[in-house]
Amino acid sequence: MKKKAISFIALISILALVGAGAVAAADYPAKRLTYNICFNPGGESDITARFQEQPLKKFYGQDVVINYKIGGGGALCWADLVQSPPDGYTIAGHNLPHIVLQPMEMGNAGYKALELKNIYMFESTPNVLAVRNDSPYKTLKDFVEYAKTNPPGVVTIGGSGTSSANDLGTAMLNKTAGIKLTYIPFGGTGSAVPALLGGHVTALMTYTPVAIQYKTKFRILAIASEQRMEVLPDVPTFRELGYDIVEGAYRGVAAPPGTPDDIIKYLADAFDKVMKDPEVKKKMDQNGFKTEYMGPEASLALVKKKMVEYEVIMKELGRLK
Amino acid sequence: MKTLRSADIATGFLLAMLGLLTLWASSTITTTMEHRLSPRALPYAVGLLVLFCGIGIAVKAWRFRGPDPEIKWPDGVGIKIITVSLASIGFYNAFMNLLGLPLATFLYITFSIWYLNRAKWLTALLTGLICGIASYYLFIRLLGLSFPEGFFFKG
Amino acid sequence: MGFSWDYLFQGFVTALSFQNLFWALVGSLIGTLVGVLPGIGPASGIAILLPLTTVLPPTSAIIMMAAIYYGAMYGGSTTAIAVNIPGEASSVCTALDGYEMAKQGKAGPALSISAISSFIAGTLSLVGLTFFAPLLADFALVFGPPEYFALMFMGLSLIISLSGRALLKGIASMAIGLMVSLIGQDPLTGAARLTFGTAILTAGVDFISVIVGLFAISEVMINVEQRISTISRIDIGSWLPTWADIKQCLWTMVRCTGVGFFLGLLPGCAPSVTTFVAYDLEKRVSKHPERFGKGAIEGVAAAEGANNATSTAGFIPLFSFGLPTAPSMAVLLGGLMMYGLQPGPMLFATNPDFVWAVIASMYIGNVMLLVLNLPLVGMWARIVVIPFYILGPIIVFCSVVGTYSIRFQAFDVWVMLLFGVIGYFMRKFGWPVAPMVLATVLAQMLETSLGQALLMSQGSPLIFFTKPIAAVFMGLGLLSIGRGFWLQMRSQAPEVAMDEPD
Q: Is position B116 within any domain?
């Protein structure tokens, strides 16, 4: 009886597996695309996905549904993605530096950075250093001076999450400026903002969208991009000011390992068209997201480059043995 | 575990064990970052709290001498019904991925209603059908949630 | 956003247009539907439904989204009362008394009072929002990490009164709740805790699955064990509450509005927290606190009113600073961005016509939900007379679908099942369930704010007593704990351990 049941289950599973494997790439896409978001609704990843949703339906050629898989700072979603069928119907948003740092730091994150198959990197949000409008620090120099006149650790700086681009950016600033700011991690960019508005932290290391949204309340001292950004023309880069800091978050989409290359290419083309849609571009610009146009190869190269970079930084910071 | 006293002693003991397990698991937490609040601090605190609560409940019950209420355990039939009901929920969940939400729901509802009231097999079948179909159109089609669809509805 | 009658009047004109009324109605209906489903909370509910609104002009769309939000908040109480499935942490207190009322054949009055209380609290809060928003907005910013920790600490001290006489079991129940919420990553350092090296536990245990297990599944187990025929043991009486009921709840509604409204101004203070605070307050001021948890109508009114007041108050920081106080607010904000509106402190200064149309539509939405739901009460109330052999499996079906949809993984359903069994034994052994729920609700914010505050103070715990607001809350919490233990000591005698929780 038991044996029979087991062999029956085995038979069904084999049939199911064969069925799943037999999806022909020729008639792709035959059904709707599930686009998983790894962070809270209302966060940067979600907002971008919402901008993309309508045009993506058009360029993908079928329905697109956005779902949330939230937990473990994104790890849950990516661990789930590497387990998903590689048929091109399940993709997920992915982020740098998260996908590099999590497998590095956590013993078992459930996925490895290179297991995620890159489709497209569509945006970046460089770090910015923000203080309140009414604060006495008019420039980065003022701020660094202030940190130096105080005992190390007294000046606090908020940001989104631990081992995030905000966290790393703060660590780099500490190192290059020879100061010691205490970094206070918050649950997300959104929950760090009231801490600065209410004066509970001295400054924020945050992303460009905050600089745009709160331009009447915050003063942006510097931006950690290579060049100044069009939407923030008056904000100098850290490099201009003599601090070699270029750091920020990148966002894109990835597919499960083993997804056929022609499907990846199809999806990458769809995303390329979405990102070049003038309506999408306008919304991204308005809200401080920097659009990027990196296809599968370019984004893989970026991930690999960042893996090397971050390993060096993390070792320097003593967070990696 | 016929009376509340014996039950309290047993659960207190179990709880204390759980506390010890938590303490052990907390001692294995590793971190490479220095932090004001060590990631071990709260797990240790909660582990200790669970341990002390367990000991407290067990000791209090042990020392208790007084009218001891009996626990209303189910009779033999009740135990059987509960076991089968729980097992069927387990099967429902375990086979959801393979069968898909609509089919698994149909099977679960039909079986459970039939099991709870054998005479009503037609009600069982109809309710099962309605729930199965509704689950497909409501959750998968209308709301676009990514439940497993199963082989009947592929595509 | 200064107040002006002109703007408000203009807002009502816009909101009362046929098109906007229609979309508000559609939003309320869909929202109620989403709210009835456990697991799909208002946040993901609105997010899922956002694409439906894209065909509309911005004002209609945001009116519809706000209506979905309201409807979802309301819908949660229905399943909590009728079948003991609190689909949201904020409906737990509603279930505590509402379901007891349903068992006593009073599902109708329970559902009606929750609609009425929601309406009154919602409308009173809207008045606060309309006239005092600029004055109140800054209140949202005075709370930093130390203040939040003190507030959460005070919240935890409610466990003393929630556990009644079974204090030790209540604390143990809380401890287990805290332990469950510790599983997963440390929010500040990212270190994996109590995961035993598994990847699935690293993502943590979602508290919705814990709640649905403790309430719905264990209730189904008890019911099938006793082979009950229907949930309501006696005939259902009137669908509507009596005047005496309403009069009894009138001050409750005012008090819970106050609690829900002021706490709701704080970012991060979700309805799940404020409903517990309001419920506990009612229990304390009541002349018959022993009735709570056994079908007290004020319990339902307090929880539902606080829930709505909190949701409405959340619009104040949203309108004034662009700050979302809860995930569902963040989704609304994201919705605004989809329409090319710029969130942040400037949004509502530059688009007053839009803001006031939304505020006006919220008044209308409140009325609409009341009118929509009161007639439906008769239908919902009949759920309790459905034979249990049919209702039981359907309750399980809803619970499974709900917990599965949290993160679309079977693991959460297993957690629900486990806590169903745990809840079953807790009922048998007289353990209070509410402390465990409260602990899982508060835990994350408690530990995050503790860690942040200690970073701010360079490790000194004195920060909780040197900041005045924090000190007040810490004092209240310590007082409440001290009083609880003192009462426990005084009533003495080991037989306390044998008491059922009241």
A: yes
> How many angstroms away from the CA of C241 is the closest CA of chain A?
38
Q: pLDDT grade, residue C238 (50/70/90)?
A: confident
Chain A residues in contact with B144 by the CB 8 A cut-off are: 32, 63, 65
- pLDDT score of A147 more than 90: yes
Same domain, A228 and A258: no
Three-state DSSP at A205 gives strand
* Residue of A36, A38, A76 to mutate when probing chain C, most C C-beta within 10 A: A76
Q: Are A76 and C407 an interchain contact pair (Cβ–Cβ within 8 Å)?
A: yes
C-alpha distance from B153 to closest chain C C-alpha (Å): 18
Q: Is C262 helix (H, G, I), strand (E, B) or coil?
A: helix
Residue B36 sits in the same domain as residue B9: yes
Q: Do C323 and A194 touch (CB under 8 A)?
A: yes
pLDDT (mean) for B87-103: 93
Q: Which domain holds residue B87?
A: 76-142
Count of A–C CB contacts within 8 Å? 166
B150, part of any domain: no
Alpha carbon of A237 to those of A40, A211, A241: distances in Å?
A: 30, 14, 7
HEC assignment per residue over chain B: CCEHHHHHHHHHHHHHHHHHHHHHHHHCCCCCCCCCCCCCHHHHHHHHHHHHHHHHHHHHHHHCCCCCCECCCCCHHHHHHHHHHHHHHHHHHHCHHHHCHHHHHHHHHHHHHHHHCHHHHHHHHHHHHHHHHHHHHHHHHHCCCCCCCCCCCCC
The answer to whether residues C11 and C356 touch, using CB atoms and an 8 Å cutoff, is yes
From B153, which residue of chain A is nearest by alpha-carbon distance?
A31
Q: Please indicate, yes or no, whether residues B82 and B137 belong to a single structural domain of this protein.
A: yes
Name the residue of chain C whose CA is nearest to B25's CA. Answer: C194
CA angle C338, A233, C337 (to 5 degrees): 10
Top residue of C143, C455, C469 to mutate, by most chain A CBs within 10 Å, is: C455
pLDDT digits (tens, 9 = 90+) for C247-274: 888 999 999 999 999 998 887 777 888 9
Q: Pick the last residue of a domain from A224, A248, A272.
A: A248
pLDDT per residue over C278-307, tens digit each?
998 898 888 888 888 888 999 999 999 999
8 Å CB contact of B11 and C425: yes
The residue range of the domain holding A305 is 28-123+250-316
Residues in chain B within 8 Å Cβ distance of A321: 32
Same domain, A135 and A237: yes
Instruction: Report the CATH number that the domain containing residue A144 is assigned in CATH.
Output: 3.40.190.10
Among residues A248, A268, A284, the one where a domain terminates is: A248
Same domain for B138 and B81: yes
Give the residue on B whose Cα is nearest the Cα of C419.
Answer: B86
pLDDT more than 90, % of chain C: 28
* Domain end call among B63, B86, B106: B63
Which among C44, C159, C212, C390 is the top mutation candidate for probing chain B, defined by the most B β-carbons within 10 Å of its own β-carbon? Answer: C390
Cis peptide before A29 (omega within 30 of 0): yes
For chain B, the domain total comes to 2
Picking from C63-77, C117-131, C416-430, which range would have the lowest pLDDT averaged per residue? C63-77
Range of lowest pLDDT (A197-201, C398-402, C489-493)? C489-493
Band (A292; pLDDT cuts 50, 70, 90): very high
Same domain, A73 and A216: no
pLDDT per residue as tens digits for the range A49-62: 988 988 999 999 88
Express each pLDDT in C172-188 by its tens digit.
999 999 999 999 888 77
- A210-227 in b/e form (b: 16+ CB < 10 A) is bbbbbbebbbbbbbbbee
Question: Counting one residue from A and one from B, how many pairs have CB atoms under 8 Å apart?
Answer: 26
- Residue A239, pLDDT score: 94
Between A55 and C232, the higher pLDDT residue: A55
Determine, for residues A105 and B32 on separate chains, whether the beta-carbon distance falls below 8 Å.
yes
Q: Return the minimum-mean-pLDDT range out of A199-208, B24-33, C79-88.
A: B24-33
* Residue B107 to chain C, least CA–CA distance (Å): 11
Provide the ipTM: 0.94
